[in-house]
Amino acid sequence: MRELKYDFYIGAAAAEVWEALVSPEKVRQIYYGSVIRSSFVVGEQLEYVGPGAAGEETVHVYGTLLEYVPQQTLRYTHKTGPSYLTNREGYESVISWKLEPAGGCTRLTLVHGDWHPDDPSYDASNSSWWQILSNTKTLAETGRTLDFGS
């Protein structure tokens, strides 16, 4: 089974990295203008919503929260938003964020796994995660994000 796995070392405390993952305003800076919406109660919905094909409230990604341990673990199912599914099936995968202290920094591990072999969003996810993770690292360390241009 395919999975995408990334390890980043971030020169910031776990609390600052965690804030970048769950604070709507910080997420907006990292995820191209989208915010995270969730009660952060296991079993309930989590979604990333922002400007896109369906307007300002486009649901880009949604799923079910599977695990939530502040400053340690965030795990949820991942489904592509409905506006991206024209003439194709919506598949589900699982995203796991894990934070661990590493000396004076935080080790952030992202695993995006449990992919269906026919899921067409695998390649786009592999490409997007590098920018999202780089922005997460930069935001936690400096308070700003990167300018990737257009």
Would you give an account of this structure?
The protein has 150 residues and is of the alpha+beta class. The longest helix is centred in the last third of the chain and has 21 residues, at 122-142. The termini are far apart. 25% of the residues lie in helices and 41% in strands. A seven-stranded antiparallel sheet has the order 1-7-6-5-4-3-2. α1 crosses α2 (24-30) and α1 packs across α3 (122-142). The chain has one domain (4-142): 2-Layer Sandwich (Alpha-D-Glucose-1,6-Bisphosphate, Chain A, domain 4), CATH 3.30.530.
The second-level CATH architecture is: 2-Layer Sandwich
Q: What is the CATH top level name?
A: Alpha Beta
- What best-fitting shape do the alpha-carbon axes yield? globular
Biggest sheet strand order reads 1-7-6-5-4-3-2
Number of domains: 1
Strand content: 35-45%
- Looking at CATH, the homologous superfamily is START domain
Overall mean pLDDT stands at 93
Our Rg estimate from Cα atoms comes to 15 Å
Give the count of helical stretches: 3
Reported for the largest beta sheet, the result is: 7 strands, antiparallel
User: Do you know the CATH topology?
Assistant: Alpha-D-Glucose-1,6-Bisphosphate, Chain A, domain 4
Order of helices and strands: EHHEEEEEEH
